[in-house]
Sequence to fold (467 residues):
Amino acid sequence: MNIKEYISSGILEEYAAGAVGPQEKQEVECMAHIYPEIQEELDNVLCGLEAMAEVQSVEPPEVLKQDIMSAIDNVDQDTPEEIKEEGDKKTVQMYDQEPEQSSAKNYASVISIAALLAVIFAGGIYFYGELDGKKATIAELEGQNQELAADKKAVSNKLDQVKTNNQKVQDKLAIVQNKATEKVRLQGTDNQKDGLATIYWNKNSNKVFLNVNKLKNPPTKKQYQLWALVDGKPVDMGVFDLPENPEQLKRMTVEVKNAGGFAVTLEPKGGSKKPTMDQMMVIGKV
Amino acid sequence: MSTTTTYDEKKLLIGLRSGSKDAFSELYDRFSGSLYGVCLKVVDDEAQAQDILQESFVKIWKKVNAFDENKGRLFTWMLNLTRNTAIDALRKNKRKATHKIQTLDYDVNIEKGHQTELKVDAIGMKEVVDKLPSDQKEVIDYLYFKGYTQKETSDELNLPLGTVKSRIRIAVRNLREALIK
Fold:
């Protein structure tokens, strides 16, 4: 990807002035995170704005200082623990909002960047709940009226399904609420503007969980593949199929440390060794 | 006042974090001018600007442990905190206004380390700012200081969206070029 072009496009200036929407904001932060030259230029741009604020300084009235100095007498400084708690709460709140609708934004730059850049996908492992085996009641019922037996069988299956789903929800909750878990939202690209997936990455165990919020059905002969971006290189996290239940968390068999971001591409069935950049569906940075 | 290396940010931070009022007093002396200037640009009213400045400095005192020096400079953090406080106040003022308020959370720190030694030629910068065309100053005011979106700015100033976009790029670019490399 052409870093010089990206820098001279003016997007960094717009970002610094707070003039971009959420998608572009994330794109810029992603680029800066990955390319040190972009981060450096962004720093300079931000400094320019701050310097402007500085040279336009105005002395406040002297009495204000006394007011402020006495005001802080009654205010305790937040401890680092309190601040972390508040930060975690805020993060959860932010993530609990409805996913934003993608505006018609051009992700070609992101995709071409990703061509040089490995996209990292975090995967999750599907929890295949174990359906309890049919109980003796089913066997008893099967001895009775055939129609009645069939009905009861259906009801029992449903109950097992509900129990399984409940267990999956509990498990998912445990992962999501785990303090060591980092949540990464993967937003849709031009290939699927409303695409959305979420990665839960446990930084202690390096386990990666994938939640597919919204991905369209892959064409036959194609499969989705998850990639993690580690030190600028794509790491294959495995292929996956769309879960029956969008609430499901899939635990990926590959563990990853030091991921900078994750992405999903559409590959031929069975996956590819390297990601097909123009088939990227969702991407997000850690 | 400037953010050149003539003051020891580390020392000041240690003082602030250990609850030293002397350190806080030094912080105020050094930065209140810049931050008050920002408040005035946002709300245009001295009384309110002073309230906002007070609120901001109290927040800075309270939240000093939230500042992470690995993510940027102290002034950046304080500037954004103040700007956001001022923009919140501005929005409350306009609660009955018809235009939508942008919901971006600019409290989020920009990641990665920054150079801690920024050389700002204050005089050179002042010249550049003074010479900045007023239409460029205007878009910076609305977008950066008052927190308007590009759409809101274009509505407010009766300018095409494309003009707002290109103008802010040029304006911010001019400021960036004024820095010593």
Q: What stands out?
A: Strands of chain A lie at 181-188, 196-202, 208-214, 222-230, 233-240, 250-251, 259-268, 280-285. The longest strand of chain A covers residues 259-268. The mean pLDDT of chain A is 80. Chain A touches chain B through 50 residues (CB under 8 Å).
